[in-house]
Write a structure and sequence with these properties.
Layout lengths: L4 H9 L4 E5 L2 E4 H17 L7 E5 L4 H12 L3 E4 L6 H11 L3 E4 L4 H7 L6 E3 L8 H7 L14 E8 L5 E7 H14 L7 E4 L6 H13 L3 E4 L5 H9 L5 E4 L1 H8 L4 H4 L5 E4 L6 H11 L3 E7 L4 E6 L11 E2 L4 E5 L12 E6 L6 E2 L3 H7 E2 L2 E10 L5 E6 L4 E3 L2 E3 L1 H8 L5 E11 L3 E10 L7 H9 L10 E4 L13 H11 L3
Length: 500
């Protein structure tokens, strides 16, 4: 088994159909498979072996996709990180991953060469030098067949957050991914005629699995954008080059503000919202304006994408749908006992799409499972028809504009400031962003703090989406008898005041 065979199959059946459209230039399935084959054979020729890690840390591009499928064809493991990560954020992750090859944006060459100087890692960028990507592809061969791998062997590693705030690499097997992809293709009724617009990052499970991989499986075309640009998006849609629109709640809110929205969507037949729960009112407004539903699903990095789907047959606003394929869902109490219909509890998942475990973190892996069921850390309930409703997240993770932010990482940085005595980072509801990251701080006696300076301080150390959009200085933060800061109480107090 090898999920790269999905590309080979589409290239065999539809060699001349567009696999990708990038900046108005189309790349056929035959061309994409040829490029991936050259990457794969070039990697093997360079001494990189099946099972080795190949790290991708670059913006969305056709090169990214060629390297990704090339790495899979070679039997190596594709490990993906956000290109927005700062050098200090990459240091520990690089040590966890131990890649044999790195595909990075040219501006990150120096960072990775420094990290790789005491290892056998090869750093590749999109420059034309003999040691870079073009040189690697020139050394490879066309028509390379994907190396066979066991269904339980790791195909890709995507990073998510942990209960400690430290990143965790979810190891997804070929079977995990293929199972999830069939869930997507079946439920979305995907066809070779579809053109899926993608501006969401490929390091994220949604962009990588739900959009890019599932579109390749169904032999459709990925309309590729390096990032979100409203003008570019509208240009693509108005030119009728998109049939499937994938976005996050903040984008749908922005689109709703446009005049003649229905006309500007062009050929869009299907809309999907990911990463954060969509406000029911926005879904209603969208349906009134366009006649289209905004479909949602429940999924996570550890499930390789879709777990439930709010589908064509009976779309229920406010729900994330019913279990997809052979996935099983149960709601459990803290002891693992099943709860009844309509009762709240932890969402637990069983299915062949659930990850093998976390890279180099056996304790986190053990904590994530109970009797074979994956513990999501999310609070939800099932209604009498089997529809899942998300009540809250047990974990403190914040989802803002479709990106995951882990409060402890920001709190640790705030604590490096001499002015800060104590702090908490929370997510407050926001119609556009889903949640806005907000930092609450109590200062040391006699100290003052310029929040503009603090914002610039954080911007230099973490990716832009992690920087709080709001700062508040309080006299003290509420705590439990044991001294733990009560974030829910903080959120309740702020919301009752009606501001951040």
């Amino acid at each position: 088994m090898n999920i790269a065979k999905n590309l080979e199959s589409s290239a065999r059946m539809f060699p001349d159909r567009p696999a990708l459209s990038e900046g108005g230039r189309e790349i056929s399935y035959a061309q994409l498979d040829d490029r991936a084959s050259r990457v794969a054979s070039g990697l093997l020729k360079a001494g990189i072996a099946p099972g080795d890690h190949v790290l991708l840390c670059a913006p969305n591009s056709s090169d990214w996709i060629a390297v990704y499928f090339g790495a899979l064809k070679a039997g190596t493991v594709a490990v993906t990180l956000s290109d927005q990560l700062k050098p200090n954020e990459l240091v520990e992750l690089f040590g966890q991953i131990r890649p044999r090859a790195v595909f990075a944006a040219p501006e990150k060459r120096g960072v990775f060469e420094d990290l790789a100087k005491d290892s056998v890692t090869r750093v590749l960028v999109t420059d034309a030098g003999p040691t870079d990507l073009k040189g690697l592809m020139a050394s490879g061969q066309s028509r390379f067949r994907a190396v066979e791998r066991g269904r339980d062997e790791t195909a890709a590693i995507l990073f998510t957050g942990g209960t400690t705030g430290l990143p965790k690499g979810a190891m997804l097997s070929h079977e995990n991914i293929l199972t999830a992809l069939y869930h997507v293709v079946h439920n979305e009724r995907s066809t070779p005629q579809d053109r899926a617009v993608c501006f969401l990052p490929f390091n994220h499970v949604f962009g990588q699995m739900h959009i890019m991989n599932a579109t390749v499986l169904s032999s459709g075309c990925v309309e590729l954008m390096p990032g979100f640009d409203m003008n570019r998006l509208l240009e693509i849609l108005e030119a009728r080059r998109g049939t499937k629109l994938f976005a996050v709640p903040t984008i749908y809110v922005r689109l709703l503000s446009l005049n003649n929205l229905n006309d500007r969507l062009g050929s869009v037949r299907y809309c999907f919202s990911a990463a954060a729960s969509m406000a029911a009112e926005v879904v209603r407004q969208w349906r009134d304006a366009t006649g289209l539903a905004i479909h949602e699903a429940y999924g996570m990095t550890e499930s390789a994408s879709m777990v439930t789907y709010n589908h064509f047959h009976r779309h229920v606003i406010g729900s994330v749908g019913t279990p997809a394929g052979t996935v099983e869902i149960r709601i459990a109490d803290l002891d693992g006992d099943a709860k009844g219909v309509g009762e709240e509890g932890e969402i637990c998942i069983f299915g062949r799409n659930i990850m093998k475990g976390y890279l180099n973190q056996p304790e986190e892996t053990r904590a994530a499972f109970r009797d074979g069921w994956f513990r999501s850390g999310d609070l939800g309930l099932l209604d009498e028809n089997g529809y899942l409703f998300i009540v809250d997240r047990i974990k403190d993770m914040i989802i803002t504009g479709g990106e995951n932010v882990y409060p402890r990482e920001i709190e640790e940085l705030l604590h490096t400031r001499p002015e800060v005595a104590e702090c908490a980072v929370i997510g407050l509801p926001d119609r556009e962003w889903g949640e806005r990251v907000t930092a609450l701080m109590a200062l040391k006696p006699g100290m003052t703090l310029d929040t503009t300076d603090l914002r610039e301080y954080l911007k230099k150390r973490v990716a832009p989406y992690k920087v709080p959009k709001g700062f508040r200085i309080l006299e003290t933060l509420p705590k439990s008898p044991a001294g733990k800061i009560l974030k829910r109480e903080l959120k309740r107090q702020i919301l009752s005041e009606g501001s951040d």
